[in-house]
Design a protein that fits this description.
Elements lengths: L1 E3 L9 H10 L4 H11 L5 H8 L3 H14 L9 H20 L16 H15 L8 E5 L7 H13 L3 E4 L7 H13 L3 E6 L7 H16 L6 E7 L9 H6 L5 E4 L5 H14 L53 H9 L5 E6 L5 H14 L3 E6 L11 H15 L6 H4 L6 H16 L4 E6 L2 H4 L2 H17 L4 H4 L1 E8 L17 E4 L5 H10 L6 H11 L3 H12 L5 H7 L8 H12 L2 H12 L8 H9 L3 E4 L2 E4 L2 H10 L3
Helix pairs in contact: 1-2, 2-4, 3-4, 6-11, 7-11, 8-9, 12-13, 14-16, 25-26, 25-27
Length: 646
């Protein structure tokens, strides 16, 4: 059984529906509505918007479709009748092309090279499927890019034939709290989670948010299930992974699919994983490779490498990359500060502004001066770690000790009568710091997650503040150099009068200037004049991710500047995922959505309530002109004018 997060309706492949449409002689307009409804499960309001007509016109065209299929009578039940017909034809269609069903070896589909793949995949299903198999509910995620049907279709058929239920989470959930709650409810009922990753979908913000939510759901389940597996589709295992997704994939078994010849082994292993919870350690087919998630932030000699997230479509900003943009004098100030006794650096900015690239360079600079660099991302912590301050600080100490390759000595230093803060301080002061001969450069990344637990955050950041003060009078604490990194989007749910952390050297990353954009364009081999630079920046501002993405695709001749500017604020543009994530955030906070709507529809700067102005600025959506707010760039103005006027 296959269902969609939008309901229990079947969703058919576009290729199959196109064949059916041609057989029933649908007109181009009728065929387009037919495909959007049954291949993508779009509502008629969305269909009307996509085909640029009215909802009534779409319904009229669908009425004509029903007549072409010989479905008469009242409106009620027509769609169900058509879906029942399509379900029947779908089974017949798949029987001729999918493994696991009878295929005549004399038929065209069975002749040639693909016949071996069909027979092998059929054997794989038969070997694993049995009447006694326990039925599981499997959620399949693939972001907003549908995977190769030569893998997706056999997988769907094999899982369904084995008696398991499939829930598609590949289309991002509906926006707002209702959509998130719906996804949580669906995931609570699932037993397994299968990720189909391509080079594009793996950098999808929405996919990352969905996988993050799935992990959180897993951690709250008493049985600890919702086991995750990943398949990389035509995306080598040694390719870079976005920082956020890499953290979420820690410990998740992976395989690589390169061509249909890999399908039998992949299908067999996925079915085995669904039933037994694990992928086998060895692979029979050479091209289906286990991907060990080595931490790509460490080089061969153990020094940290940048892992900035999806600022380029194909990876991160490497230390030696010619595309890293220095925003002087920020780097120089940080390099100087990290070498100071008791240093504390706070890096904050909206998402995708380059925080982690800068952080990695700071750690690399410290390592080059003989310091012990340790990176700790709080996304590595299970939800249970945040159950109490005591458990959190023990995990914190144990993790850092492990990274320093020191034995765990927590039982000897943890005294229940002294309290968690005192115990943690003693563990650093009496054990961790004395055991190393050089300063410790400790980077605390993704501390946004700590802010979500106010009771823990108050004590933890108070502890860091106390350590920083201790460094001014005690030698042992001069060995600790701290870098704290967080997104300013953490302020969205917070009371703006609660300062999360206000000591040390604050670093707020600015946008690129026109000179930096022109310089970066030249590094890509794009010979732009100031007019071209200004045209791009009028659309996307100096946002590092938005600028880099544009230059990358223009340099590859995927698109011209003119076409990019025309499509940028639309769902067909390169920024659709970035924009939808912002929309998702706004719709979860209606007051912010109303404030943003006021900004983008006003011809003049807008005086907003201080809290809303501060939070929209923290999200990177607005900038200030005096005490008034304007949209940060024309991209946001055009997109949110369209999306918030609904």
């Amino acid at each position: 059984m296959i269902v969609s997060l939008r309901g229990s309706k079947s969703v058919f492949s576009r290729e199959f529906l196109t064949q059916i449409a041609h057989q029933h002689q649908l007109s181009p307009d009728q065929e387009r509505v037919f495909l959007l409804r049954f291949a993508e499960d779009q509502d008629y309001e969305d269909i009307a918007e996509e085909v640029e007509t009215s909802k009534g016109a779409c319904l009229k065209r669908m009425g004509q479709v029903y007549k072409k299929f010989g479905i008469e009578g009242g409106t009620r039940g027509k769609e169900s009748e058509l879906r029942a017909f399509l379900d029947q034809r779908w089974v017949q269609h798949r029987a001729s092309v999918l493994p696991g069903l009878e295929v005549s070896l004399g038929s065209p589909i069975a002749r040639g090279a693909d016949s071996l793949v069909i027979r092998e995949t059929s054997s794989a299903i038969a070997a694993i499927s049995s009447p006694a198999m326990v039925s599981r509910k499997v959620a399949i995620f693939f972001g907003d890019r549908q995977p190769d049907e030569r893998l997706l279709d056999p997988l769907k058929r094999a899982i369904a034939s084995a008696g398991h239920q499939i829930i598609f989470a590949g289309d991002h959930p509906q926006s707002g709290e209702k959509g998130v709650a719906q996804l949580q409810q669906e995931l609570q009922a699932c037993d397994r989670l299968l990720l189909l990753l391509s080079g594009q979908s793996a950098f999808s913000d929405l996919l990352i948010e969905e996988v993050r939510l799935a992990r959180e759901v897993r951690e709250t389940r008493k049985d600890g299930t919702l086991d995750m597996f990943a398949i990389r589709i035509n995306w080598p295992t040694d390719s870079p992974v976005s920082y956020d997704l890499r953290v979420l994939l820690q410990g998740v078994p992976q395989r690589e699919w390169r061509s249909p010849t890999d399908t039998p082994a992949i299908v067999s292993e996925v079915l085995q994983a669904i039933e037994t919870d694990t992928l086998p350690r060895k692979v029979e087919v050479e091209s289906a490779v286990i991907s060990a998630l080595t931490p790509t932030w460490e080089s061969a000699d153990g020094r940290p490498l940048p892992f900035a997230g999806p600022e380029l479509p194909e990876g991160q900003v490497d230390l030696a990359s010619p595309f890293y943009v220095n925003r002087a004098p920020i780097e120089e100030r940080c390099y100087e500060m990290i070498l100071q006794p008791g240093a504390l650096i706070r890096i904050k900015a909206p998402r995708q502004m380059g925080k982690t690239s800068l952080m990695a360079r700071i750690l690399n600079h410290a390592a080059n001066h003989g310091y012990r660099p340790v990176h700790l991302s709080f996304h590595l912590a299970d939800k249970g770690v945040f159950a109490s301050l005591d458990k959190f600080l023990q995990w914190f100490c144990a993790y850092i000790g492990q990274q320093l390759q020191l034995p765990n000595q927590l039982p000897e230093y943890w005294d229940n009568f002294l309290g968690s803060n005192v115990n943690c301080k003693a563990y650093f002061e009496e054990y961790l710091l004395p055991e190393i001969n050089t300063p410790l450069a400790l980077c605390l990344d993704e501390v946004d997650r700590v802010f979500q637990h106010p009771d823990i955050a108050d004590d933890f950041f108070g502890l860091l503040r106390a350590w920083h003060e201790e460094s001014k009078r005690r030698e042992i604490w001069k060995k600790l150099r701290l870098v704290v990194v967080h997104s300013t989007e953490v302020y969205i749910p917070m009371n703006i009068n609660q300062s999360p952390f206000n000591v040390g050297l604050p670093i707020e990353l600015p946008e690129f200037t026109p000179n930096l954009v022109q310089d970066l364009a030249q590094r890509y081999g794009i010979n732009w004049c100031k007019t071209d630079v200004n045209r791009l920046m009028n659309m996307v501002g100096g946002h590092p991710f938005l600028v880099r993405l544009a230059l990358y695709h223009i340099a590859r001749q995927d698109i011209t500047l003119e076409t990019l500017l025309e499509t940028a604020p639309t769902e067909a543009g390169f920024y659709n995922d970035h924009l939808r994530r912002h929309l998702w955030n706004l719709e979860q906070h209606p007051a912010l959505a109303r404030a943003m709507k006021e900004v983008v529809f006003s011809p003049n700067p807008v005086r907003l309530p201080s809290e809303q102005a501060f939070k929209l600025h923290s999200m990177g959506l607005v900038k200030f002109q005096g005490n008034e707010a304007v949209e940060r760039c024309d991209l946001y103005r055009q997109y949110f004018r369209n999306r918030l006027d609904e």
